[in-house]
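sorry for the late reply, my laptop died twice this morning and i had to redo everyting from scratch. anyway the thing you sent over, i finally got around to it. pasting the sequence first so we're on the same page, its 166 residues, then the predicted structure underneath. double check i copied it right bc i was rushing
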Amino acid sequence: MLKMVKITLFSLLVGLSMLLACQNETTCKYKPSPVFEKGLPHVLDYYYEAKGTQSLESLLLDRGIELEISQEVCNETRQEFRFKVEGDFTAQPDSFWMKEATRQLVYLSSLSEKQAPLKAWGDIIEQFRLEMQLGQDREVQQGVFVRIDRVTNPQEAILMLVFFQK
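ok and here's the structure:
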C-alpha cells in the first residue's frame, strides 16, 4: 500500500512539474536566421544549425579566419561573433583589437548584399572606438550594447564581438 502511495505521489509530482514547465515556456516573436549562406565568395566552408531560439553558424574564410556566430533570439537578441586566426597576437595593444573589429565587419559586409548591414555595425564601433574598453559593455543606442574582447595565446587569437539588447 505504501509503495502504491509513493508511486502515485511521484506520478503526480512529475505531472505537476511538466504542467508548470509548459506554462513557463516563453513564446518568442522571433527565431534566429542565418547571417550568411552557402556559396558566398571567399567562404570555403559553411555550416548553420538552429534549435529553438538559438543558432550556431560557422564559416571558414579564404583569408584563414574561422568565424563562429552564435545567436539567441527571442524577445531580446544576442549575437556573438568569434573570429579565430592562427598566429601570435599576444603583444598587440587593445587599440589593435578595436580597429580589427571594425575591419572584420567591413570586410564581411562586402561578401553580398545580405551582409551589407554589417558595415553599419563597423561604423558604430568606429564611432565609439576611442571610448570603448576591451571586455566592457558599451551602450551605443538606448538598450543596445556592444562588447569587444579577445583571447590570445602564442598559437592563435580569438576576437569576440557581442551585440545585444538589455
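The helical segments are 2-24, 94-109, 118-128.
thats about all i looked at so far, will dig more tmrw
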